[in-house]
Amino acid sequence: MALKLPSIPRFEQRVLLGSLLCALPGAAGLLLVVVFGLPSVSWGLGLVLLVVIATALLARWQLRRIMFPLYTLAGLLEALRQGDYSLRGVQGGVLGDVIYDINALADRLQQERLEFEESSHLLGKTLAALDSAVFVFDDASRLRLVNPAGLRLLDAERKQLFGNTAEALGLSGLLQGPPSALLTHVFPGHQGRFEVRHAALRNKGRGGSLLVINDVGRVLREEERQAWQRLLRVLGHEVNNSLAPIQSMAGTLASLMARDPLPADWREDFRGGLDVIAHRAAALGRFLSSYSKLARLPPPQWREVELAALIEKTARLEQRLPVRIEAGEALQVHVDADQLEQALINLLRNAVEAMLPGEGHVTVRWARDGENAVIEVEDEGAGLPSSDNLFVPFFTTKPGGSGIGLALVRQIAEAHEGGVMLVARDAGIGVRARLWLPLVRA
Fold first, then answer.
1. Where does a domain end: 183, 218, 253?
2. Are residues 248 and 282 in the same domain?
3. Other C-beta atoms within 10 Å of 311: how many?
4. Where does the chain cross the membrane (predicted)?
5. Alpha-carbon distances, residue 343 vs 72, 146, 306, 385, 403 (angstroms)
6. How far apart are alpha carbons 183 and 176 in whole angstroms?
7. 116 with 124: CB under 8 angstroms?
8. Is residue 119 part of a domain?
9. Which of 67, 83, 309, 395 is 20 to 30 A from 48 in CA distance terms?
10. Of 77, 111, 145, which residue constitutes the final position of a domain?
């Protein structure tokens, strides 16, 4: 948008010439009086009135000629002050040099704004893509910036966090520690081992703090999973080498049964041999199947599921001890129903086995927690084992356990962009398993 300016060579010349023109009526009147004199008083009053009117008209004309370029200049400057860099003045007028400088300034500011917006957009996209939680606090230790990973870590919405102090968010201790540290910590949205880094910031002459929290446990778990996948391939190869001769022996026995005549005790021997072979083959098959679940877990097949119906159906499968259901609100979740059912079966099995052969109840409940659906399986057993390896594949505290139940639950939860944790009950003995899943997929 261009503002048209009068095309007079120089502003100073315009002011000078206009001032001379304003003085011209008075000079002309004075010249007439000097040359012709004053014929009468009325003639003199008329001449004075004419000079005053002419001078006023010329002064008004001069004022407009001077003020219009200044108003235009003021409008351009006001637009720049308000952040509107689209206005431009037409160069070559009486304020040509000034307009040129203002236009150049507007171009520079517009370019800087564009670069700032692009940098801010890039920064926002970068922070959103980071797995590390990023928090920025001002000089009063109030939160001013947080990325999505930080929201997930604190299990809260952005509007709930902004303006709160680091102490209110439970992060002040991390800011007061060493600049870089590895520690085990429990956050509202996750627990595990974290790398914590913080540094001082300055913005507009004021201090601030940057806090970055990285979940190193997830990275380590991924490395563990890959290592166990390689191990499972070796185990599968070795066990299959054992299955092959067993199956061959079963085939040989079956062919011997077809002979005629047969020994008198052939039935007992053959039945015993076949039973042993079949039992061993089935046991090895179950061994491979259970240990291969971690490596062969397929991607979730997403569909809408009524959470209450899925939990109630799964709870009915456990018959060894009563399973008490505390009904919650009706929730629809977008999940792989088969995988979620398997995770719940594993949690229920662990809860029941923690209480056998004693008495008590296993309780299942669910509720909405912000944007997550939370499922809790609670037992009244001996309590939480004193180990940090409960979710490590093949680690078990139960005699004869496979050590894949909790590891599989965590893998299923993380595949659904959720998580799982074990905590002690608030009252009494026992363990509460807490599994959470997003109600809406990102």
1. 218
2. yes
3. 23
4. 15-37, 43-61
5. 72, 32, 16, 20, 14
6. 14
7. no
8. no
9. 67
10. 111
Query: Does residue 316 sit in the same domain as residue 431?
Result: yes
What is the value of pTM for the model shown?
Answer: 0.42
Helical (H) or strand (E) element with 256: helix 216-257
Per-residue burial over 45-66, b = 16 or more CB atoms within 10 Å of its CB, e = otherwise: eebeeebeebbeebeeebeebb
Cis peptide leading into residue 6 (ω within 30°):
no
User: At a CB cut-off of 8 Å and minimum separation 6, what does 358 contact?
Assistant: 381
**Confidence band (pLDDT; 50, 70, 90) for 299?**
confident
pLDDT digits over 103-128, tens only?
777 777 777 777 767 766 777 777 77
36 vs 30: CA distance, rounded Å: 10
Tell whether 195 and 236 lie within a shared domain. Answer: no
Range 408-426 average pLDDT: 86
In a domain, 281, yes or no: yes
Sequence-distant (6+) residues with CB within 8 A of 310 are 337, 340, 341, 344
Query: Measuring CA to CA, which residue among 169, 166, 179 is closest to residue 138?
Result: 166
| Cα dist from 399 to 175, 253, 279, whole Å | 44, 35, 21
User: Is residue 378 pLDDT above 80, yes or no?
Assistant: yes
Distance CA 414, CA 422 (A): 15
Q: Residue 34: inside a domain, yes or no?
A: yes
Domain that holds residue 408: 303-438
Instruction: Between 94 and 146, name the one with better pLDDT.
Output: 146
Domain identity same for 307 and 422: yes
Question: Which stretch, 133-142, 266-275, 291-300, has highest mean pLDDT?
Answer: 133-142
Domain shared by 307 and 432, yes or no = yes
Provide the number of structural domains found in the chain: 4
pLDDT at 29 over 60: yes
On the question of a cis peptide bond just before residue 148, with omega within 30 degrees of 0, the verdict is: no
Question: Tell me: the pLDDT tens digits for 194-251?
Answer: 888 888 887 766 788 888 888 877 666 666 676 667 566 656 655 665 565 566 666 7
Read off the CATH number of the domain in which 384 is found. Answer: 3.30.565.10
8 A C-beta contact, residue 434 and residue 320:
no
Torsion of CA 215, 217, 218, 220, to 10 degrees: 130
